[in-house]
Structure formats: C-alpha cells, structure tokens
Amino acid sequence: MNGWKKLSRTIATQSLKKKWAISSATAIFLSFAIMSIILYVALRGWLYQQEEQEVNRTMQDITSFFESQGPFLTVQDIQSNTGLMTSIVDKDQTVRLLNADGIEVLQINDSATFRDFDDIEVPEEGYVLTKEDKSSISAIGNVRLGRFKGYIQLEHPLKSFHSSNNYILTAMLLFSVCALLLSGWIGYILASYLLKPLKDLKMTMDDVVAHGFKKELTISYDAKDEIGELIIVYESMMAKLKYSFEQQQQFMADASHELRTPIQVVEGHLSLLNRWGKDDPEILVESLGIALREVSQMKTLIDEMLELARGEQVKDLPPTNIIEHTEEVIEELVQVYPAAYIEHELPDDRNLKVLISSNTYQQIIRNLLINAIRYSLEPANVRISYERTEKDVTIHVNDKGIGIEPQHVSKIFDRFYRVDTARSRDLGGSGLGLSIVKMLVENARGSIHVTSDPGNGSTFSVVFPLLK
After folding, report:
1. What gap in Å lies between CA 426 and CA 421, rounded to an integer?
2. Among the residues of 311-446, which ranges form H helices?
3. Burial, 72: exposed, middle or buried (Cβ in 10 Å; 0-12, 13-18, 19+)?
C-alpha cells in the first residue's frame, strides 16, 4: 500500500508531458499485451489441432495399408511403400505392430519411447488418442491381417509444436517491449507537439508576472479545439485585466492630480491664516470661504469617483417611465436654477418605458441638464425632446450655450477631461459628470453621442431600447 502511494506521488510530481507519455505507453502496451495473449492462445490451440490431425492421418494411412495387404504382408512390402515410410520419418513419428498379447512384432522408426501397453485401454474398433504426456501424442488401435489380430501403436512427438510456441511467445514478448518503447516515444513527441500552446501560455503568464502588461499578450494558435478555446478565454480575460489595470492606473493618477489642487489651495489659505490672516476679518472670511468651496469640490469629486467605481457593475434593470421621471428632475432643477428656462416637448405617447432604474435615469438627465445650464449663456435656455422608433427612443437635450470645439467632442466623455480647465473649475466641474453619464447609459444597454456648434450650443442624444 505504501509502495502504491509512493508511486502515485512520484507520478503526480511529473510534468504533464511525461504523464501523457507514460499513460499512452501503458495503455498501448496493455492493449497489445491482451491482444497478444488472445492471439497466442488461439495459435497454440490451432497448432495443437494440426498435430492431432497429423496423428489421425498417419493412423488412418497405416491401418488402411496393413489391412489392405492381408495376411501375406511382409517387411519388404512395408519398405516398398516409400511414401508412407517417408511421411512417418519426416514427422519424427514412431510406429509399432503388436500381437494380441501386446508383444512387439514390427517397429517403424525408433525416435520415441512407447508407454507400457498394459496401461492403455484399447477400444473394440478404431483407435484412441492419449494426450496425458505434454511431450507427445499417443495413438493405439486394433488391426486385423487375415487371421492375425493385433494392435498398431503410434507415438507422435510435440517437439516442433513446442518450438513453434516458444518462437511465437518470444516474438510477441519482443514486440510488446518494442511497442512499449515506441508508444512511449511517440506519446512524448505528440505530447510535446500538442502541449506546445499550453507551454506558450505558461511563458506568457510568466512574462505578465515578471513585466506586467508592458509586453503584448499574443499566442499564435488557430485550432478550434479545447486548447484554442482556453487561449481565447485567457486572451479575453487578460485584455479585460489589462484594460482594468490601465484604467486603475489612469484613474489613480488623475484622481491624485485633481485632489492635489484643492488641497494645495486649502493648505495655502490655512497657512495664510496661521501666519497673519486670522487677525484680519476680511482675509479670514475670504480664506474660509475659498477653503470651504474647495472642500466642497473635493467632496463632490470623491462622491463622483465612488459613483463611477460602483457603477462598473451592471445591476438589475427594472422598467421606468422616462417621461414622468424627466418631469420630476425638471421640477427639482427649476428650484435650484430659477433663472434657467427648461422647455420639455412631450411626445404623443407618454408611456415610454425603458429597462433602467428610476434613480439611474434621473441621475443621467440631471447631469445632462446641469451641464447644459452651466455652459449656457445667461439666461440659460434648454430644450428636451424625444424621437421614437419601433425599437428605441432617443432623448435630446439641447442648449444655446458656448458649444464645444470639434477637437474636444471625442474626448468629453473621458474621465477628468475638461475643455477649459480654468472655466470648468470656476463652474464647479470635475470632469467626471459626463463619464458617469456614459457609464450609466451603457450599463442600461444604451448609447450617447453629442453634436455641437461652437458659439451656438450643443445637443446630447441618449438612445435607450424600448421595453416591448
């Protein structure tokens, strides 16, 4: 039992290539061995039957010859039958003629030793074969030559039979050993070839561990088998990890950059107050106001970053009537921006339902409207309209603001991107609002795009699939 466990541990520590070679060699060897055993047993039985047939044929020929000659059979007659004599000698058989008392009268060839006549039961007619001795087959039967009644006894040695069996057995053993070695070698070669993609995959993983995602992660394998599917899944997983890693790196760099500015402003004003500004009421009020404003911006920035991080996972999407929730957001913003005018063009069908949570939808519309109001000329004039098809609905948020230059349009949904850094900071923007909007829209299986005319305003269009 301990030896078996030790063998199992030894095999478990081997490489997959060696395990494959050992397994294939063992399977082929066992299959070949079983087939060889079956073939050997079948050949041995067939060869033994051939030996029995030789004995039967010789006994029939001798009996027929003796009985056909009658009582006048002489030794010269037997010697003159060269065919019979040659057959007996070539087969290394020995034949003798016995009288009724079991006394030998005549013997042909002397290559074998006969059993004692008294130990043999002779049938009334015909002859009987004796197979007790593995080295030979014996036969004895009655013969009648006129008035002479006696017995014919034949001894057939099995030397050629055993020699053939030994030759076949030796050949099969040699073939089995050759099959074991050849199958092990072929199995190792095939394992090396078939497992090469896995080896390349391991080397790629080692490169990732050693160098991160700096090196291109590509594995050339075009076969559509299980290994090919595994490599496709791996490349997809690594692409997502690489994207997440790069986004995390960029996110951390941008966040540290964005948080550094308000912290430095707060630190500067606190230092000013600590040195001499606390004795001057105007400077004290101004510095505290600026510090509070920067702290508020930091709080907003942190909240937006957390919202952006939480929104990376797609949540369940309940149906929402977008018309009702758009009106709720408009009523809310009218209180915050009383000077702004928000025009809401209602569609003919007010039962427009989209698979999105009400809070998420309100956050999308709220961010778009606040963005439109902040970057509009005074007084702000914003219009919301709808465009419906059989499969989806498009929500247009149009403003008459300053617009966006063409070179900035493709980047406004990037995190922390601001068209005019100084102006955006004055307006309280962090560069995350539109990124959050895009993320929330795509999580709801929608899309967003923008068209803008610098100096005349912009239009943000959000497309959602309709609930059937």
Report:
1. 9
2. 322-336, 358-374, 406-409, 421-426, 433-443
3. exposed
CA dist 163 and 160 (Å) reads 5
| 381 SS3 class | strand
Residue 272, judged by CB atoms within 10 A of its CB (0-12, 13-18, 19+), counts as: middle
Among 90, 221, 78, which Cα is nearest to 152's?
Answer: 78
CA 444-445-446 angle, 5° bins: 90
Query: Which domains are delineated in the chain?
Result: 1-194 (3.30.450), 196-310 (1.10.287.130), 316-465 (3.30.565.10)
C-alpha 413/C-alpha 439 separation (Å) is 9
How many Å apart are CA 228 and CA 374, to the nearest integer? 53
Tell me the two tokens of residue 395: 């929500």
- The structure's pTM equals 0.46
Enter the tokens of residue 345. 């063009």
CA distance 348 to 253: 48
Please identify which residue in the block is written with the tokens 């508020």: 296
Within 10 angstroms of residue 185's Cβ, the number of other Cβ atoms is 12
How far is Cα 199 from Cα 468, in angstroms, rounded to an integer? 50
Name the residue among 377, 304, 359, 370 with its Cα closest to residue 334. Answer: 370
Once rounded to an integer, what is the mean pLDDT over residues 443-458? 88
For residues 2 and 4, give the distance between their C-alpha atoms in angstroms, rounded to a whole number. 5
Q: Give φ, ψ of 139 to 5 degrees.
A: -140, 140
* Tokens (6 digits) for 181: 């070695």
The number of residues making up the chain comes to 468
159-171 residue pLDDT tens: 888 999 899 889 8
- Longest CA–CA separation in the chain, Å: 163
- The CA–CA distances, whole Å, from 64 to 50, 52, 143 equal 21, 18, 9
Q: How far apart are CA 184 and CA 189, in angstroms?
A: 9
Confidence of residue 242 (pLDDT cuts 50, 70, 90): confident
In this predicted model, what pLDDT tens digit does every residue of 316-372 receive, in sequence order? 567 889 999 999 888 888 877 888 899 999 988 888 889 888 877 888 898 899 888
